[in-house]
Amino acid sequence: MSVMWRLADGGLIDRTKPVRFRFDGQAMTGYAGDTLASALLANGVRLFGRSFKYHRPRGLLSAGVEEPSALVGAGVGGRFEPNTRATDLFLYDGLDAVSQNRWPSLSFDAMAVNQLIAPFIPAGFYYKTFLGPPSLWKLYEHAIRAAAGLGKPPQLPDADAYERRAAFCDVLVVGAGPAGLSAALAAARSGARVAVCDLDARPGGSLLGDPATIADQSSTDWIASAIAELEALGARLLFRTTAFGFYDHNMVYLAERVTEPGAKPTSGDIAQRMWRMRAGAVVLAQGAIERPLPFAENDRPGVMLAGAARTYVNRFAVKPGSSAVVATSADDAYGAAFSLDKAGVKIAGIADLRSEDEISPAILRRARERFEVVTGAHPRAALVGSGRAKGLEVLVDGRARTFEADLIAVSGGLNPSVHLHMQAGGGLDWNPRRGVFTPVSPRQGQLSAGACAGHTILSDVVADGWRAGLEAASRLGFSAAAGAAPVVLSEPLDAGVCAFAPAPGAHLKTVFVDPQNDVTMSDLDLAWREGYRSVEHMKRYTTLGMATDQGKTSNLMGLARLALNEGRPAPDVGLTTFRPPFTPTTLGLWVGEDAGFHVTPLRRAPLYEQHAAHNPPWQAVGYWRRPRAYIRPGETLATAALREAKTVRERVGITDVSTLGKFEVSGPDAAALLEKVLATSVSKLAVGRGRYTFMLREDGFVNDDGTVWRTGETRFLLTSSTGGADRMAQLLSYVRNVLYPELKVGVANVQEHYAAVAVAGPKAREVIAKLFEGADPPRHMSSARGSMAGVPALILAASYSGERAFEVYVASHSAPGVWAALEAASADLGGCAYGLEALEILRVEKGHVETGGEIDGRTSAHDLCLEKMLNPRGGYMGALAQTRPAFSDPNRLQFVGIESLGGPIPEGGMLVERPGFAVQGHVTAAGVRVLEPGYVGLALLRGGRAREGEELMAHSPTRTMTARVRVCSPVFHDPAGERYRD
Amino acid sequence: MMLIPCPYCGPRAQSEFTFDRPVEAITRPDGSAPELIRNLFTRDNPKGPSRELWRHTYGCRSWITLTRDTVTHEISDVTPVGASQ
């Protein structure tokens, strides 16, 4: 069986290295150098998958990344890679591949029943289901969703490691085919640092499937000597590397497949590497992709691009069929006929769309020596037997004629690959005879060469590559003598005529334009009839070109059909945007090393180790980690938090507040700057005094809050929240440097320079008095300088918890010693350390607003009951914006307190009259009373300031919690502030 | 991934910079309310050269103004702003 399809000799496979693999559970063998596609062909496999919507049987269309139909899942477990093109997967020992989109098996797919309902599910049917009754839609939506998609995603975390690298070169050459290698040689010999990339496993490009003579050598020898010379000249050669995105300023992203999809990397290695290559100049030598022909049943197994058929014979030594008919509109496919013939495939004939005089005479004569060539032949339909192609019907002068063959090798000409050129920015020139676009007007000076510039004859391709390489190098100043371009003698070849229209009478419902998304010619006509006439609408309505192959073999045919319906030339209709990536990229490539533990940076505050010793549950605040509570044996997070809060209210607690934003602002204009940034005044602060403050955004909403202290005549210390610290830094810098550069003031971000520990509670003063030397503990809202535990310390007396409190500021590296001293001193008085949960309970009881809770970017100073603190002189950031009419709407969400009339209040819950009624606000924070029973919370309520005493429900359907609450003042504990005021 | 020539650091990748606003939208908070609101919310979207305020946030942190062509992404006339720090 397999012996029959594999040729006895020839090809670029290594017959000394057999490779064992499985396909759909069946064990098979191939050779090193095979792709999965060629190995399956050699094993007689002709059925590769089932189509997306209709579950039609599909075979192999191509030998490259443009393959729309032969998609498999490769690998197992965490290495499973769905939607892998069988043509883009090189065989390795132990490869386990499965076909997709079929159940229970490839040969018997129950979903093929979709073909019976095909008339009801043309392109766009899904949008029309939205017009029906919603209740019905909810029924069939499940079926549609289950049926959608091709491959199944892996169920386990990615087992592989990935890497990203940045690199530079003078000349990047994309493609190592004849044009690319010529360009690379020219540039490297000129003295430039060259990088060459190719998505194939080996260099050669089109020469691998279509060998020729270059510089009096076989192409195999020429390629080898070119590579050797490039290596000697120090060029960077990257194979299995796809240039998938061309970005600004000659930045090209490359995806290197270090390991084949699904394979286990050799020990310690990575699966894929992303290169961010910044080039001085880029030469694009991506080649061209062959186009199929439009005829009925043109998606059947057995229909293959002619160049691919030739490649399977010449490169992989496999016969893709036993008998073949070649249907073409260009000369290039004749080479496929010759190669197939030499391999022993019976040629039923060549059906050429063109008239006799359009075909190169030498080629025609050579062909006619061996087979029948029918000219003016328009393919109309593939003949089908057992689901596969068994022949081709063509129209010649209006009369039907059939060729019997199990391989229909088609060619609608070669389409220059302009993807990267267009991503870089550029224009396209239309060749109406060939029906192709060629690249022009490169916006970043990118040089297209060879087949992707429109050349089809090898001698032109090689010469064009040489020219481009020289030009790229000389533009950068490299002009060492490069010698002469390689000499190639090629016979003239006609590039062909466009073949976008099916023969008259062809059944359009089976003329497939985009096989991967099952888009037919009749779908394109339907879209046009329904009014979707711009190319963007046609694409999205029919999903033409939107599958994983991005329409590499179908976009132009779709465009031509639209142009025909519109009665306009193709270039007037326009093209959709070319976007990266050129071929699908796996997510791991973009993540690189930022996975697992490294997914975000970890910022450790100076006392991180001290907290970690207690193994607390951590709260992520930005990139910081702060301890939520110090849980003792027998405690839960909730009971620990309540114990800590109680300890603060009854005795003393210490907590780490080092992550707060801190800024030193000093200079003669320090107060002036602060009064432009802060919404409160500061100039009246005496030296040694501080106050609560807050800042607005430019649009008038509250940005963050904090405290500000005058520590010297012209010196201030400004604190902000942890989460808002970076925003504050940016704002201070903007105001100081951009808006008021003339002010005499310096701003230093000292967030990481100072560690800070808050000591709070009735016994806090005792703790401070015991340890603070050089000055008395400051009174409320005053500061004092002295030393503690032998290091300089600044103490700010401010209370967040509602008890008398002191914040001790020391240099970060001194923090551990100070923390230890404070911990010991407070423990002596029955105190303890407290974490974020207790901090939250305490601040809720005191009605302090918090950034991220009540300060959520949508609340104004008035909403938060802070308007009395606004600087009456104005002139600060956001002052003018808050005069806008909407800010005085009495029905705005306003800050209130809520007390529960029953059980706990759901945080984040909605405030409603009754569940199901209109939402009037939400609970921003929920907590408990500390020294007495009771549940309280803070909320934002529409018109809340005028609704004290009202009863509402706090309702959370996601937590299934509801509480009856009363609107009240947010200050529950010690409203007069007697516990900390002097 | 544009290459932006920082006056202090030389050509650096775009990812090191943050865009702030068009230069004409820079408004002091002590001006007129209508002007401030307009500059904040009503901005041109030029097709072509755009004079912009950027910051080399992940480099030297200086503020710069530059001209960026919104179509070609060509960067030109990069100048430092005020008392940069």
Strands, helices and their partners?
The complex is a heterodimer of chains A (982) and B (85).
Chain A: H1 2-5, E1 14-23, E2 26-32, H2 36-42, E3 49-50, E4 57-58, E5 71-74, E6 81-85, E7 95-99, H3 125-129, H4 134-147, E8 162-174, H5 178-189, E9 194-198, E10 213-214, E11 217-218, H6 219-232, E12 236-239, E13 241-247, E14 251-257, E15 272-284, E16 288-290, E17 303-305, H7 306-314, E18 323-328, H8 332-342, E19 346-352, H9 361-370, E20 373-374, E21 377-385, E22 388-396, E23 399-404, E24 407-411, E25 414-416, H10 419-424, E26 427-431, E27 436-440, E28 447-448, H11 458-475, E29 512-514, E30 519-520, H12 521-529, H13 535-542, H14 555-566, H15 570-573, H16 587-591, H17 608-612, E31 618-621, E32 624-627, H18 637-650, E33 653-656, E34 661-666, H19 670-677, E35 690-696, E36 702-712, E37 715-720, H20 725-739, E38 746-749, E39 754-760, H21 764-771, E40 772-773, E41 783-788, E42 791-796, E43 805-811, H22 815-828, E44 832-833, H23 836-846, E45 893-900, E46 910-912, E47 921-928, E48 935-942, E49 951-956, E50 961-968
Parallel strand pairs in A: 1-7, 8-9, 8-15, 9-12, 15-28, 17-24, 18-19, 18-24, 19-20, 33-44
Antiparallel strand pairs in A: 1-2, 3-4, 5-6, 5-7, 10-11, 13-14, 14-15, 16-25, 21-22, 22-23, 26-27, 29-30, 31-32, 33-39, 34-37, 34-38, 35-36, 36-37, 39-43, 40-41, 41-42, 42-43, 45-48, 45-50, 46-47, 46-49, 47-48, 49-50
Chain B: E1 3-6, E2 10-13, E3 18-22, H1 33-41, E4 49-55, E5 63-69, E6 75-80
Antiparallel strand pairs in B: 1-2, 3-4, 4-5, 5-6
Kindly describe this structure.
- The complex is a heterodimer of chains A (982) and B (85).
- Chain A is of the alpha+beta class and 982 residues long.
- Chain A has 23 helices and 50 strands.
- In chain A, a hairpin with a 2-residue loop joins strand 41 and strand 42.
- Chain A is elongated, with a radius of gyration of 37 Å.
- The mean pLDDT of chain A is 95.
- In chain B, strand 5 and strand 6 form a beta hairpin.
- At the A-B interface, helix 20 of A face helix 1 of B.
